[in-house]
Amino acid sequence: MLKATVNNVYPPRGATLPQGLEAKLATLSDSFLIHIQEFSPNLYIFMAKDYTHELLCKMTLEIKEVFVSLEEDSEGGEYLAPVVACNFPSINFQKLNEKTSFDGYLQELLMGQFQLKILEYLLLFCQQEDAAKLILTLNDTGLDYLKFYRRFLVLEEQVTTSRGGETQIVIPIDMGTYDNVIDFMDKIDREFRCALWRGQSVNTAFRDYLKSNACL
Question: Rounded CA gap, 133 and 172, in Å?
């Protein structure tokens, strides 16, 4: 049986009091939405929407119990633990292309920031549900996410599903993973802002993007 929601959730680095999923959701700006709704005891609908760039990701999260190994156990011991599994959907970025004047650098970085934001809230949800791991299954059209997710996973393998051959990745649920995701998001954001300001004089797409996003 799955454990009930616990209070041992991810705190920000160096903080003494933990910040849970609900508290984090309360800090979201009007331009970004995360909505998680329980569909049945073990199924949840997860939706992320970036209003500024018109990006939408919607998927079903399933909580199930599987045998997981203890990394510190040299004898390969396993225990039954809940995990969160989902099929990562394709994200339509046609509107993003238009908003970035079809500039490849802008498209890649903005999509990457959106994907990392999704991962942040997936990790928080997993920790709230006391899950040991996050298991993501991606088809060929979703493999671009691996560029940003690969640094956090502990397993990547090819699997056969009802949809055919797909890639499955496993990301551990612990403080180290969450901290690494947040640090990487901050790094990407700093580099993105610097590139925009430095390149605006020669790149019209950068210049137009800065004009339409005055907060940068």
Answer: 5
Domains of the chain by range and CATH?
21-212 (3.40.630)
Model-level pTM? Answer: 0.83
Least confident of 145-154, 164-173, 195-204: 145-154
Judge whether 177 and 155 are in contact, CB under 8 Å.
no
Question: Where on the phi/psi map is residue 101: left (φ > 0), alpha (ψ -120 to 50), or beta?
Answer: left
Provide φ and ψ at 170, rounded to 5°. Answer: -125, 125
